[in-house]
Amino acid sequence: MEIPGTGNRTRVCLHGLGASSGPYFTGAAVHPALAGHRTLLLDLLGFGISDRPTGFGYTLEDHADAVAAALRAADAYRTDLIGHSMGGAVAIVLAARHPELVARLVLVDANLDPAPPVPQPGSSGIAAYTEEEFLAGGWRRVRDRVGPHWWSTMRLAGREALYRSAVHLARGTSPTMRETLLDLPIPRTCLHPAQDGPPAHADALRRAGVAVVPVPDCGHNIMLDTPDAFATETARALANGTTGTP
């Protein structure tokens, strides 16, 4: 989905695991604080309204390269990349592998580290199955655990795409997403729910020049829980390069 605007720099929104960029980011893209720029709401391969190829690997690197191809096709270079959850992990990998495509990063409660191997509704819970178990019926148990809100978009995902993306997100990258983020030479902002406290190793992020910004009155889905605060902090990050106190 493309939201037209008059701003010179394209903004690109990437959703999280089992999500879709339209439902999660349209409200933010048209918010007065963020409106007026060309904005691409991009569904990763396997999710939302994108194709669901069963032969695709769905590693974070695969997702990043597929997004890079889409951005080049859209003539979108030096973009402002806004990534939520798994989309933030993909955004970090994309910025490292295709630096000409990314000028600034805004990471929204993004995955920076491999997930601990404990049963949870998200990536680690899905990755606890084998692919055969998941496709044979494990997805139904995941559906029952995640609840109707998340399932409303998760049900649109290809099951191979959902499983493999979860496995690779839980496994992470080498170097880790966090280590890659620390080395990126571009403005970077991490938004996180204030109620969760600072993210792990926040001081190291700040020392590397990453702005770490708490957003009050929200959970993991910051852009949906508190759209005004999300739009304000994101606009500040994109206007100034960083927001908050590095």
From TrEMBL:
Keywords: Hydrolase. InterPro entries: AB_hydrolase_1, AB_hydrolase_fold, AB_hydrolase_sf. It holds the Pfam family Abhydrolase_1. Residues 12-117 form the AB hydrolase-1 domain. Coiled coil: none annotated. It comes from the Bacteria. The keyword Hydrolase applies. The keyword Hydrolase applies. One of its GO terms (molecular function) is hydrolase activity. Transmembrane segments: none annotated. Gene3D superfamilies: alpha/beta hydrolase. This is Alpha/beta hydrolase. It comes from Streptomyces albospinus.
